[in-house]
Amino acid sequence: MAHKWTDQDGRTYPLAVPAVTNEGTGGTVRAYLLNRAKPHLPPWLGWAGTGVAGALGHWHWGESAAAGVGLTLASVALTGATWLMGKSTSQQRRIHSAVTVAAGSAWLTAACLAGPTAGPVDDLYLMGGPVVALSWNVRMALRHNPEGAAGGSADGGLLEKVGLARAQIGAAKVEPNRVTAPLALEPGEQTNDDVTKALARIASALDLPKSAVRYSPDPDSERRGDLVIVPEDMLSEVVEWEGPSNLGGSIADPLNLGRYDDGADLLVWLPGDPDAGRNSTHLLIAGGTGSGKGDTALNVLTEILSRTDVVVWFSDPKAFQDFAPLRAGLDWGVEGGTPTEVMVAGVEAAIPARTRWLGAHGYRQWVPEAAQTQNDPAHSCRSDGRACGCAGMPFLVAWFEEAANTLRALGDDAFTGIAQEARSAGISLVVSLQRPSYDQMSTSTRASLPSVIALGCDPRDEGFSLPETVIDAGAHPGAWGNRRPGYCYVVSPGIDESRYPSPGRTRRFTIRAVPVMERLAAWAQHNGAVADPVTAGAVSGVAGRAYTGRTADDNAGQPVALRAVRSEEDEDMDHGGLLVDPEDIDIDPEAELPDPQEGDDAPIFGQETGHKPSPEEARRLFAAALAEFEADGHMIVGPKDFTDWCDRHSLSRSWVSLRLKEAAQEGRLDATNATGRWRIVPALTAA
User: Which of UniProt's keywords are assigned here (predicted)?
Assistant: First the structure.
């Protein structure tokens, strides 16, 4: 039968000895006693060896003064080394070891110089040696006595194994699949950084993945914190999305995106809450290819569209490849390129208009009451103190999917102004991209995105997504890469900071989710909020017909807030009359064509082709071109946009750049952040 014996350091070794039987043969009893005695023999062997060494040392160095000096120095050095090497052990064991070595080396020095039988040297050996050996036997007996285990270390020796032996661990709080234990480190010797560096060793000792062990330092102490251990990964099971969590609720309620590894809900808030002391936030969704970023974005967007007091402006350069079933529920959806440029300008124009409205109605930040009709005198814009009855202002989410495309086109600071100013206007900016590195996004923009959902990524990119303190606490999305889609860390206001290094997982969207998303979009179209007159007016002032707004009825093509204004213009229009363009009304169809003019003929070598209009004619044609672009919703233009137009009208392009500058001086165009790009000022606004 195989048995084990344990040495003084707690190491166990297998030992094959016969089992004790009722025969009681002499050989069997001797083997049993030897097996039981072996763990206690090392101190006695050390005592005997010291006596032999003392006798041999006296025979060799008994008359040498130099040997006396050497032995004394060796004794001091050995004792000091023992004290230093015991730093990683408990204080009691360190003192016991140092005293034992000091006593043994002192006796050995005396025996070598004076002789092992001189004076009290032999008495000290015969009485003190067994006492020291027995003290180690008693220590080991107490250490492995089950009855005394309750008085031992609360961590079962775990902290000693990982180099934190003198740390003290308090009573653990045990929850379903989560253990939280307060930790107090050795004053002046250990800091919270030591625990952070030991997390991998703790995970190894517990046979768990590194992500299952986290440490949350106490912000008021450098030597205290909570060690969190999650023994079972509850995220390994895929959970499919079946519908929004709070259909018909407010955007001020939390968005439920999935669950943490201990089973708790993964919640995110966008608007602020002055009562809870929570600020409004912008959201960054970052993750590498295959990390589940698309499903995570769908989780966020479906939660937003299920609320009744929010509108969404959405830009997707991938032509709504993942979001097509939800497009009907958006207030404004555009693809990449020029339409996205217009949306950025529209958000910039909406910020001061919304901020002005909120301030006039007594709101320091957006709250759900701001989305309702203003019937409260406390939130009236009237000077006489009576309720103003103004239409409410819904919360606005400006979402830029695959934002790296937009940043390349507009510059790395395209969102800087929005990110810094939009929160006070009741606007949340959502930016989704694979790698939020500083060569793609300006540091000012990144610093203004306080919330992040960090999915699997390259280990070198962890610092771009998560704060350094969260990484030090045990968060490592680089360990997942694209092997665990949907796994993420979430840092956002409203979430307990101890949750930041806890991994979560968002729900998966499959083909079965498409009909549910389409029904959600239809619900949002009929029950969701529409843009308020202030927001719709501000964005239409820069986007013109490019902004249509989500319609709740059959009047497609214009925002509900603007339909009342534009219907008055429609009443004044006579829809009868000639079916001819106004600019062609004076043309006689029977008249002869005009004679050819210079420049209308075949190209001359080294000279541009096409008719070169007079200055007056150029202004008229250019104005018509701008009107044509505006009618098509093409509100951002540059010289390259006139290529097809010039070819279509057989006109040269040499005067386009000059005319753009002149139109800007006249107020018909406005410069954008991009070089050589101009925003068309809608005709009514310019007038």
Answer: ATP-binding, Membrane, Nucleotide-binding, Transmembrane, Transmembrane helix
Assess whether 224 and 262 both reside in one domain.
no
Q: How many other CB atoms are there within 10 angstroms of residue 391's CB atom?
A: 15
Residue 518 covered by a domain: yes
Cα gap 554→321, rounded to integer Å: 26
Sign of CA dihedral 528, 530, 532, 535: positive
Stretch 129-141: mean pLDDT: 80
Burial 475-512 (b: 16+ CB within 10 A, else e): bbbbbbbeebbbbbbbbbbbbeebbbbbbbbbbbbeee
The alpha carbon dihedral of 438, 440, 446, 451 has a sign of negative
pLDDT at 595: 55
Residue found by looking up tokens 């969704």 in the block: 285
Strand, coil or helix: what is 522?
A: helix
Which residue type sits at 328? Answer: A
Dump the DSSP string for 299-362.
Answer: HHHHHHHTBSSEEEEEE-TTTTTTTGGGGGG-SEEE-SSHHHHHHHHHHHHHHHHHHHHHHHTT
pLDDT greater at residue 670 or residue 426: 426
- Measured distance CA(415)–CA(463) in Å, rounded: 21
Residue 174 confidence class, pLDDT cut points 50, 70, 90: confident
| pLDDT for res 599 | 46
Collapsing DSSP to helix, strand or coil, 20 comes out as: coil
Residue 563 covered by a domain: no
On whether both 134 and 161 belong to a single domain, the answer is no
Q: Are residues 453 and 480 in the same domain?
A: yes
Question: Are 135 and 191 found together in one domain?
Answer: no
| SS3 label, residue 679 | strand
Listed residue (546, 570, 568, 569) closest to 559, CA to CA: 546
Q: What angle do CA 93, 95, 100 make, to 5 degrees?
A: 95
Q: Which residue, 129, 116, 144, 125, is CA-closest to 57?
A: 116
| CATH number of the domain within which 212 lies | 3.30.1360
User: Structural domain tally of the chain?
Assistant: 4
Provide the domain limits for residue 639. 612-687
Contacts 24+ apart (CB under 8 A), 75-78: 75/102, 75/105, 75/106, 75/108, 75/109, 78/105
441, β-bridge pairs: none
Query: Which distant-in-sequence residues (6+ apart) come within 8 Å of 217 by Cβ?
Result: 192, 195, 224, 225, 473
- The answer to whether residue 11 is domain-embedded is yes
Q: Are 543 and 345 in contact (CB under 8 A)?
A: yes
Q: Which H or E run contains 168?
A: strand 168-169
Contacts of residue 72, defined as CB under 8 A and 6 or more positions apart, other chains included, come to 109
CA gap 314, 321 in Å, rounded? 13
In terms of domains, do 141 and 168 share one?
A: no
List, as residue ranges, the binding site for ATP: 287-294
Answer yes or no: do 125 and 25 share one domain. Answer: yes
- CATH number of the domain at 677, please: 1.10.10
pLDDT at 108 > cutoff 60: yes
Residue 268 or 37, more confident: 268
For residue 6, the cross-strand partners are 12
pLDDT of 290 reads 92
Which residues, in sequence order, are CB contacts of 606 under 8 Å at separation 6+?
Answer: none
The answer to whether residues 448 and 373 belong to one domain is: yes
Give the global pTM. 0.64
Half-sphere exposure of 197 (CA within 13 A, CB side): 7
Question: Residues marked as binding?
Answer: 287-294
What are the φ and ψ backbone dihedral angles of 224, each rounded to 5 degrees?
-135, 150
Provide the sign of the torsion angle of the four alpha carbons 492, 517, 563, 344, taken in this order: positive
Last residue of a domain, one of 89, 124, 148: 148
94 and 168 co-located in one domain: no
Rounded to whole angstroms, the Cα distance separating 492 from 476 reads 17
Q: Is residue 172 part of a domain?
A: yes
